[in-house]
Amino acid sequence: MARYELRFSGAGGQGLITAGIILAEAASIHEGKQAVQSQSYGPEARGGASKSEVIIDDVPVDYPKVTKCDALLALTQEACDKYSDDLKDDGILLYDNDLVTKLPAGNFKKVGFNIINTAKNEVGREIVANIVALGAMIALTGVVSRENGEKAVLSRVPEAFLELNKKAYAAGFEKAKAAAAA
Amino acid sequence: MSKKVGFLQGNEAAAHGALYAGCKFFAGYPITPSTEVSEVLSIELPKIGGKFIQMEDEIGAMAALLGGALAGQKALTSTSGPGLSLKQELIGYGCIAEIPCVVYNVMRGGPSTGMPTGPSQSDVMCAKWGTHGDHATIALMPASVQETFEMIVRAFNLAEKYRMPVHVLPDEIVAHMRERIVFPEPGELEVIDRTTPSVPPAEYKPYDTKFGDVPPLAAFGSGYKFHVTGLNKLPDGFPTTKAEYVQAEEERQVRKVMANVDEIVEFEEFMLDDAEVCVVAYGSTSRSARYAVNAAREQGIKVGMFRIKTFWPFPDKQIKALAQKVKGFIVPEMNLGMCSLEIERCAQGKAQILGINRVDGEPINPEQIIEKIKEVK
Predict the structure, then answer these.
(1) Comparing C-alpha atoms, which of B96, B128, B100 is closest to residue B25?
(2) What superfamily in CATH does domain A4-181 come from?
(3) How confident is the model at residue A118 (pLDDT cuts 50, 70, 90)?
(4) Which structural domain range is residue B237 located in?
(5) What average pLDDT does this structure show over B72-92?
(6) Domain spans in chain A, listed from the N-terminal domain onward
């Protein structure tokens, strides 16, 4: 596969950096590809636009940041406005359709569902919204296999929360597939 | 047996590299974007009988570092720009008293508090000239997580070998990005320990040049008693103003590094054989440069990269030779032209020099470098 560039964006505290790390681990450790994860955030511990970027390639990754985005996750309107400029025409925008209501113009594929609400009300905890989003991103991009994505999630999570995260990952994966088909 | 792998941040790799090198003492004061080094070592050092101290500020931390090093331990501190400014008085003390230690400074925007979470490369001159007076400086510039591990080990080796503070200067991008790392096995990387005295305590002098430009260093508490001061000193460590000692000592402390510059200076040459344009880059910026060089080569442009791995001492000889060969240098850096000044000094007007300078907290992207490569006449 050629260089593939993903960006997870939203507000500080939403777990986007963690989602990026897990995806990069899935690619690098579990799938044997090359991956680099980097991030950019403000000085605030919570709030403020935050992004986490993952570059995946078959060859070693030189420039560790996004040049032209293949897939973007936006969990807030602010992040969507700020980080969607460089999304490729054949790229993918995954967004929370409760929170992102003004979509950017562009020919890229737009897939939205209630990511945070799914975590809160269907899975049971809002804190796993990042894992719902990660499952969705993997379903849409196929950048790692469903199994390797899940392995990476579970290897990062304390034992007491394995089931919760498994459920979150599966919910995100299924909902994204359904939303993309709709 | 397959080697242990991990998916780590540069800062985490730095902490593990320090442990590999035999570091048993950390003194610091947490500061973004270097805090993860303290986090890891605060957990790991106690497990191996090491000591972790969080001091009241960076000045105290640097003082504690010198104390720990004099007690015979391999000592590390981690900080960022504002902390590096505060540490300068004690870094100078480490230079004149010849105390081996490693200062890991993650470069963020400055001056002052600047941009705590934004990347920068603007401390390269501060590492060299931040403390006053003549002194030699060694500063290493990692560009990947794996290299951060290896360079911390090398920094300890150089500190121990030359008996002086050594800087490692990752930018925030290298320090915070995560990559796969393969942990070297014990014995795989060279680990150097300082030379200790071969004479009995009564005959020991801490600055005795009959043992060469780097005199052996005894550990406090090992039965050797000696005086340490920030003043110019005699071979026994006590202060002096005698001209012949002061001149000779100052010269020796610079010579011990500069006479070994070929061994200390490391660099990487990438596609330079037939290059007409040379991008000189370091740290994360060299990753943008590599991307740009590959892309420009695809367009038929003869360009290569000289990657600085040891910033101080500066690779004078290599840049001088390249200046005879190439039409121009492109110098991308996240500051307003610090490396460019050194390139100008070495190139002596023999080649065009074009800087790309960003201090807005954003990395220099490959596109900017490709555009600039095309401007070389």
Answers:
(1) B100
(2) Pyruvate-ferredoxin oxidoreductase, PFOR, domain III (3.40.920.10)
(3) very high
(4) 201-261
(5) 98
(6) 4-181
